[in-house]
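User: I'm writing a tutorial on reading structure tokens. Could you give me a worked example: one chain, its sequence, then its tokens, then a sentence or two explaining what the tokens reveal?
Assistant: Sure. Here is the example chain.
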Amino acid sequence: MSDPLQPLLDLPGVRDAADRARDALGEVHRHKTNRRGWPTTAAEAAVRAARASASLDGGRTELPAPGKVADPILSGALRVGQALDGDALGLLQSTWQRAPLQALARLHLLAAADLVDDPELLGRPRPAGGVAERLDGLAQLVTGGTAAPAPVLAAVVHGELLALKPFGVGDGVVARAASRLVCVSSGLDPHNLGVPEVSWLRRQQAYRNGIAAFASGAAEGVGSWVILCCGALEAGAREATSIAEAAAT
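And here are its predicted structure tokens:
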């Protein structure tokens, strides 16, 4: 059976962008602070990622004062961030590797708990035509259906979930978290140190244009999205380096 993502690897710039992302994240994990102190830097990365991810979906970035209720989008993003950190990450990663659709349902429950009135809608994809089939195809990719480099797979998972909007609410936070799970489970970013969300937040128009290009299905558009995401992973490694250096002082 042919690899469905192989055509992407033949597009100009894709392999090089994936290599740069891999090298940058590998260097972050070799940073002296992260050799033993990665739990601390990973926790800070999770909070930064959650705040940026919330902002991309129209939420606030200010953390609430004790006893105050946070913005519902930020609350959901922070819950997702907690699920991607510490001991909780191992559990979610295990689910993602064997049953990715269950992991997506869990992410949606966390992300959208304060955004929907009917709790029965949490974790349940929309019954629209084609949603279930496309999610099944995505699950097959994640569970061994492609040999594409991890940055490429992360970009495809991210883009497909954004384009598909399988749940109808909270999809952005879920998509970015799923991209992180690809990076963790593949060994690209095993300690979840990178913060690509900051790059996407700083380049919001390019991010939206990239999503539209991916959703078009045109090879050039999908390729440009993959390169954009690889660049964000590379920038996220620089953000992780700044976290590590701050922790060392």
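What the tokens reveal: The CA atoms of residues 159 and 211 lie 6 Å apart. The domain at 10-57+70-248 is CATH 1.10.3290 (Fic-like fold).
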